[in-house]
Amino acid sequence: MDRPILYIAITNHGFGHATRAAAVAATIQKLCPEVLLVIVSTAPRWLLECYIEGDFIHRPRAMDLGVVQADSLTMDKTATLEKLLEIKKNQNSIIASEVNFIRQNRVNLILADIPFLASKIAKVAEIPCWMMSNFGFDFIYRDWGDSFTEIADWISDCYSKCDRLFRLPFHEPMQAFNNITDVGLTGGSPRYTSQEVRSTWGITAPTEKTILLTFGGLGLQQIPYHNLKQFPDWQFIAFDKSAPDLPNLVPVTDHKYRPVDFMPICGRVVSKPGFSTFAEATRLQVPIVSVTRDEFAEAAFLLEGITNYNQHQILTPSEFFQGTWDFLNQPPNQPKQSQLIAKDGNETIAQAVLNYLHL
């Protein structure tokens, strides 16, 4: 028997799509180790290995681009449009290259998060394309006005060819898709006990005075670290290579450790609106402090999601960048919804894939 082969195409934007798709891939591998995973992503291999413990093929290819950004909050729309037009112009060669790979390797199914060309690749390769996301890039670009309308229409048309969408929580309507299955939160789970994390990283502050600062793979250029001086008996954890040397700041540079590994020992996670961070914190019921992100249309749905389902504090950029961080002395707001959100997205998507592959 040939091994069933799953081709997982991940959008070329930040780390969030890569980590949530890798969490689903890891669940598939745990449930059925004989599935051969082909991870098609420009995300670094070490990031994928943080989630997928077994073997996989890493195919570093970009079939979309997301948004050109200097950091997690700053975007360049002109450069984004230029690159999208270039992808549209070169789409036939991108599609032909991937179809060739898919046929040579006898891939059975594409699962995409959420590069729009994946559905066109699947149609030419004559295999199904399933997708997973809480937003489509047509929705992001359409919000940017007339110069993006034509490209957004093209992307919506690509998405309409998708055979099935697993729609994650905190989502926009995703109207381009014809076959939608709503699922619970996805994400990674902590790999270490709280005691192991505390002793390895020298964290002695109580949980309520331990704060995780995480701004995704793109980081944030100007975190106002000077505010940490006002909390001498607290400890702050940052995934920031350029973090200053401060007595109450723990910089994490070891790739084996992920933000989710620290969440259980933290009283709050300070972040920007990003599905993977919000989902992992909500799965673990760790309160979120988020800076708003007005130019990203997805952000409103993410912020509404954590307002409804997690303890939260929402900050304006000026409160975060120019304020004194007094928000840490205030209790978080309680979630508006009393019912808990479903947290079984990894398992639901994984089981659907295995059912399709007859495993």
Annotate the secondary structure layout.
Layout: E1 5-10, H1 16-31, E2 36-40, H2 45-49, E3 57-59, E4 69-71, E5 74-75, H3 77-89, H4 91-104, E6 109-113, H5 117-125, E7 129-133, H6 137-142, H7 149-160, E8 164-167, E9 180-182, H8 194-201, E10 210-213, E11 235-238, E12 249-251, H9 259-262, E13 268-271, H10 275-283, E14 288-291, H11 298-309, E15 312-315, H12 317-321, H13 345-356
Parallel strand pairs: 1-2, 1-6, 2-3, 6-7, 7-8, 8-9, 10-11, 10-13, 11-12, 13-14, 14-15
Antiparallel strand pairs: 4-5
Tell me the radius of gyration: 20 Å
Instruction: Report the count of strand segments.
Output: 15
The spatial strand order of the largest sheet comes to: 3-2-1-6-7-8-9
Mean pLDDT: 95
Distance between the termini: 12 Å
Helix content: 25-40%
Alpha-beta content class: alpha/beta
Helical segment count: 13
Low-confidence region ranges? none
Envelope shape: globular
The main pleated sheet reads as: 7 strands, parallel
Strand content: 15-25%
What's the order of the H and E elements?
EHEHEEEHHEHEHHEEHEEEHEHEHEHH
What does this entry look like structurally?
By secondary structure, this protein is α/β, with parallel strands linked by helices. The chain is built from 13 helices and 15 strands. It has helices spanning 16-31, 45-49, 77-89, 91-104, 117-125, 137-142, 149-160, 194-201, 259-262, 275-283, 298-309, 317-321, 345-356; strands spanning 5-10, 36-40, 57-59, 69-71, 74-75, 109-113, 129-133, 164-167, 180-182, 210-213, 235-238, 249-251, 268-271, 288-291, 312-315. Strands 3-2-1-6-7-8-9 form a 7-stranded parallel sheet, sandwiched between helices. Strands 12-11-10-13-14-15 form a 6-stranded parallel sheet. Helix 1 (16-31) packs across helix 13, helix 4 packs across helix 5 (117-125) and helix 5 packs across helix 7 (149-160).
